[in-house]
Design a protein that fits this description.
Blueprint (H helix, E strand, L loop, with lengths): L3 E11 L4 E12 L4 E5 L6 H9 L6 E6 L2 E2 L8 E3 L11 H12 L3 H14 L15 H13 L5 E5 L7 H18 L2 E6 L2 H7 L2 E6 L4 E7 L6
Parallel strand pairs: 3-8, 3-9, 6-7, 7-8
Antiparallel strand pairs: 1-2, 1-4, 4-5, 9-10
Bound molecules: adenosine-5'-diphosphate (2 copies).
Length: 226
């Protein structure tokens, strides 16, 4: 099967003053369990590509499908993590993670089990009750990552998730993302502007170029042995 498929997708944004081709004739096929990283300079259409998959941007032409079904409108079952964690300030870490369960009406005991597993995987133990402002930026992103993964989404989309963090924290979080991906076999699409990060994380690296945003090259990355 195919987890994500874009076929000849072009997106044009038109405002009163400007007309921008954000992505042009992009085709991409992602198999279940793949970790695809999308790299390229600012403005090359990386975010637009993720939004297409999430159903938040509609193609001007071409088609997008998720697990074999055409994407028409916002996709509720995918996970999405952004550069800003966007946590609820008045709720502790664990309750922020469980927000996902409440929004989806997940069974409580299943949600609790998943939350505890993700808290363990991301090293958030001991911080379950901490409020966002009591957590470092890296810890806040861990909470956001757990929240995005709580319902075991078939596809996880990440848009520069750790871009605002210092290099060391980013390296730690990348290692955790890699471990979570290996343990859960989630299909991941991650956008970054760092080639080093793209190569470290991805099983496949998609390089985009701007004006208009196109796929320039794709590389398969050899996975290091465990
Ligand atoms: P990247 O994530 O690689 O920085 P984006 O996908 O955010 O690139 O943007 C690609 C191009 O499309 C840019 O020129 C950007 O200004 C433009 N763009 C993105 N979203 C919109 C929008 N909603 N309206 C108008 N132009 C947009
Ligand atoms: P920049 O973002 O300025 O391009 P680098 O290219 O040096 O910085 O590295 C970017 C990021 O790539 C690192 O901060 C880290 O998140 C990730 N990275 C690169 N190599 C590794 C690795 N071996 N283990 C974990 N993360 C890595």
């Amino acid at each position: 099967g195919t987890a994500v498929e874009l076929d000849g997708v072009t997106v044009r944004f038109t405002t009163k003053q400007t007309r921008t081709t954000a992505v042009q004739d992009v085709s991409l096929r992602v198999r279940p369990g793949e970790f695809v990283t999308i790299v390229g300079p600012s403005g090359c259409g990386k975010s637009t590509l993720l939004k297409l998959v999430a159903g938040l941007v509609r193609p001007t032409s071409g088609t997008v499908s998720l697990q074999g079904r055409p994407v028409a409108g916002p996709q509720k079952d995918i996970g999405f993590a952004f550069q800003r964690a966007a946590l609820l300030e008045w709720r502790g870490a664990r309750k922020n993670i469980l927000l996902q369960a409440e929004m989806r009406g997940m069974p409580r005991d299943l949600a609790a089990r998943r939350a505890d597993e993700l808290i363990r995987l991301t090293g958030l133990e001991g911080f379950e009750q901490a409020l966002p402002h009591e957590l470092s930026g890296g810890m806040q992103q861990r909470v956001a990552l757990c929240r995005a993964l709580l319902h075991q989404p078939p596809v996880l989309l990440m848009d520069e998730p750790f871009g605002a963090l210092d290099a060391l924290t980013r390296e730690q979080l990348n290692a955790e993302v890699n471990r979570i991906w290996r343990e859960t076999s989630t299909t991941v699409l991650l956008v970054t502007h760092s080639i080093a990060e793209a190569v470290f994380l991805g099983t496949r690296v998609v390089v985009m170029s701007p004006r208009p945003g196109r796929i320039q090259q794709e590389y398969d990355v050899d996975l290091p042995a465990e």
